Amino acid sequence: MKKGLAMLMAVILAISLVGAAMGDEKSMTEQEWYSQALLDSEMSLGNNARLKNVIERAQQGEEITLAVIGGSITEGAGASQYRECWAQRFGVRFGNTYGAENGSHVHLVNAGVGGTPSTFGYMRYARDVVSKVPAEDPDGLPDVVVIEFSVNDWGEPTNHRCFESMVREILDAPNEPAVILLFAVFKTGFNLQDDLRKIGDSYGLMMVSVKDAVYSRIGKDLTEKEFFFDDYHPTSLGHRIMADCLMKTIADAAEKETDVPQNLDVPAVYGTDFIGLKTIYGDTESGDFTVERGGFPGWDTNSYHNLPVGWVCGKNFYHDAGDSAEPLKVTGTFRKCLVAWKAASDASFGAAEILMDGKTVMTVQGAPDKWGQSEVVLVLDDQEAAEHVLEIRVKDPEKRFTVTAIGLQ
């Protein structure tokens, strides 16, 4: 009896705490500082012609696909439940706000992958975004794409060229999608919005800065614990604020007079020389390149998974202990080469040499502070295409190694 009463009291207390939290959150959204924070997040309303076209089609009941791509914040890390992450909130709210029939024709593709830069995002864009557009959407392409890599691209090997190439390739799609740049922030205040906004300014993109909205208000209107789950990720409330910032910017952009069509005849900011990147996976069938798996005959089913994407990239190239020491070899004509590999902490994973045309370019190996994320290295960065041979060779055949994917242009 006492035990049952104690459990009942615990449930009542939990409910009261949830109610109080919800009440605090509601009152926060009604405060003047919060309204100003949302306005401060509007780094740029951008050219709204494409956005307004999407909204008009959504209101008419057409099938609309929203896509989000980024790192772990986009994946949903820090939120207590997936439905509370900014991406899922955005999908639901955009559908409810602009879609017909309670948004039933508005779909969301979440391609967030923790610990990865835009380089990897661009490598997997076709597989993890385009191929996942629902069959109901007749053109098979996303209509709005939100890109969030501002806290993941430090040290990214192409110096923002893959980011800009991805932006430009998406903008060039025949269905003319709207592209939005979303700039998250770490607890330290770090992000790369000053670098990446140059791309957004050049192409007339909508840009939303969570840093500009909340960082100066931490310790005043918000505590660190209210917004940050840890050093890198927002809490459920933080995700809510991110979604509020995004939706406020969209709403204000939609209310503007319609701009002239977006001008894409602009010079590159960092470079668009990765446009047309082709990605090779363990199950890719391509006449463009010859793939010899050598000592990488299988695939690593324990490579990175996440909730919205599932098994990221699908089949890879996996060397297991005892497999042949023969290298994974790719032959073809290309001028750029990116290799994504599994950075493992497990001591059973070893090192691998990456060679181009018989010469060792680099050696890669996991470390105790890694957790299995796919890291990307730039192996070839030429201006003119030529016949090349890429080889990836394990240094110790008794150690494991996983090549997630290979990008060639």
Explain this structure.
31% of the residues lie in helices and 26% in strands. It is α+β, with helices and mostly antiparallel strands. It has two domains: 23-255, Rossmann fold, CATH 3.40.50.1110; 278-408, Jelly Rolls. The strands form three sheets. Strands 7, 8, 11, 12, 13, 14, 15 and 16 form an eight-stranded antiparallel sheet that branches. Helix 5 runs parallel beside helix 12. The chain is globular, with a radius of gyration of 23 Å. The model is unreliable at 1-24 (pLDDT under 50).
Key descriptive features of the protein:
six-stranded mixed beta sheet; Jelly Rolls; 409 residues; 16 strands; alpha+beta; 12 helices; eight-stranded antiparallel beta sheet; single chain; disordered N terminus; Rossmann fold
